[in-house]
Amino acid sequence: MSISNPEYSSSTLLKPVDLHSSGDGGEHKKGLGVLMLAAIGVVFGDIGTSPLYALKECFDAEHGIAFSPEALYGVISMMIWALILVVTFKYVLFVMRADNKGEGGVLSLMALALRSVKSGTKEYFVLMILGMLGACMLIGESVITPAISVLSAVEGIEIATPALKQFIIPIAVVILFCLFVIQKYGTAMVGNLFGPVTLIWFLAIAALGIWNISNAPEIALAFNPMYAMRFITDHPLTAYIVMGAVVLVVTGVEALYLDMGHFGRNPVRFAWLLIVLPSLLLNYLGQGALVLSNPEAIRNPFYMMVPEWALWPMVGLATAATVIASQAVISGTFSLVSQAISLGFLPRMNILHTSDSERGQIYIPVVNWALLVMVIVTIIEFGESVNLAAAYGLSVTSTMLITTILLSVVMRREWHINPILIALLIVFFFAVDLAFWTATLIKVKDGGWYPLLLALICFTCLITWYKGRKLLRDKLISNSIPMEAFVSSLLAHPPHRVEGTAIFLTAHIDYVPVAMLHNLKHNRVMHERIFFLKLSTWDVPYVNDSERITMRDLGGQVYLVRAVYGFKETPDINSILTLLEKQENLTFDLMDTSFFISKDTIIPSASPGMALWQESLFSWMMQNAAKPSDFFKIPTNRLVELGAKVEI
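The chain above was modelled as a monomer; its predicted structure follows.
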């Protein structure tokens, strides 16, 4: 295995790496206004399109509650305070403080939590499992978000021209198909339009809100949290049911945290407080005012609050906003999968970088096409956005709850603030998250099973790959030869040495790679210059080039090299050779250099380890992983693969 987790690697060659937070969510040279505009386009697309379906779902006849003025005030008040308490108070003020050298997201938070926990303990394993589950829920959310967002936007066609209702699903499928097809070209050019278009969207929904509030200004009373509290206490069962729909107003809240590293903490915070939050509040109040004066509008309050002359332009703007939201989710999924690969939770996949200037812009073909298939199946299966909304809530609340659990570990062990304050905050966050999570559980039969199924499939793959790699690593180490003793013996009685350089990729710096043993056994020669190269991934997003390479001379022109990468980076053999030339005064001629890799073939067996079906799945994943030459960017004509069968 060429990439390993730090807990399985010797640290004898590793230079100290600063694992502390950057303190400001990353450093960014652009101005605050420019970064705020970019953040509006990338970070807030998902949560910004929630007004299309959130209130409608709350009063849906099948999934929500019956309409009444009392219920309307209670629901609008719950929506307002969900945005204030969950997004503003929890995420913007506290969760975004838990950055890993400027990067956010559930896997970054997991890495922070694991930093203070001893490897191999039960707590370590539980936190790692929680991080995996959070990532799986986000991947499931990335399937539902494009489907519900684009579908809810296109459904405005029915309001404008009811005769076109039958074309809603085909139009949504075509839009999403085109969106996924263009992913391979990158988002650099389109990304410049994201901010302005989404800003226009927020200004438009704010204007619609103000326009409709004038019809029933008394709706502003819903700002009083007592309306929400009174609704909950007077109708606890009804309020509990509707909470599963109210949570839709905070969908996309994880994007605040996941995309923090792209723009920095402050631009995201200011964009939320100054533009996004006021626009959402005004629009929800406007929808409430419309329904209060015209209860029939509850069947689609967003589009029915639009003046007739502006309906088609709003459908177009909403579609553009939902496409942007979907694009951000897709890009986030690529980043999440890339992190999972680097952390050892998924097999290697071909990762293409779509920008020369932005290293975070990547494209993973197999993930892209898998998402496309699942999104189209989702749209056809559920048919309407209201049906998807029931499925959406459970994935959102599950991720929120996992974030709170991991955050509690980070706050308790990493933050130097009053323990009593930490306890009070965590209890409050847990209470809110559990209330929303349990409310969405009652909708499992109405569609909540879908994100659970997606998460279960993803989690099965992640845990199988992680456990399989560990079993394989332990099996290989048990049959391995210690590196230093072997090299000393080999140099004492060397075989015939041939010209050129041999680079052996190794899974562990303390043991001789199998490829080296096979080369000596079959070819009975030793290259003039030999490098044992270990690629390690650590719990930081990026590693500076000055700290990336460590080399040790074992004598006789035999060297032990470790290259350290962050979990948001992709190893590159050419860059490693370039760094060795600069830092160690070495020279490499690729036409005179051979790369040796062990290609293990897994043989499932009844021996202790994993269930036979898991071993078969692991074997299949190994066979279908990206070629090392593609993933590590090794010239294919310089690669030598020496295979071995391993029974686990």
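The chain is about 60% helix and 10% strand.
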